[in-house]
UniProtKB/TrEMBL annotation:
The chain crosses the membrane at residues 5-23, 35-54. Keywords: Membrane, Transmembrane, Transmembrane helix. This is Uncharacterized protein. It comes from Secundilactobacillus folii. Residues 61-80 are annotated as: Disordered.
Amino acid sequence: MKGLIYSIIVAVPVIIIGSTIYLTRSWSPVSVGTIVTWFIAWVVSMALVTILYVKLMPRNQSSDDSENEATQNKEDGKRE
């Protein structure tokens, strides 16, 4: 499952940035319009990567595990 998540996270910016560069291939690479367009594509793709990472990655379960362990220890103490 993590492999699929990582693939999606990598594919999104590759598609966005790659298609932007392909569509602007005839533009002058040093013009302001090209640089601004590439910058916007980069910002959008990084924002989407951040959102995908937060939504798709499993949460850290350590706080829940420690609470469950503390509850288990209390129950074990009562049984003795």
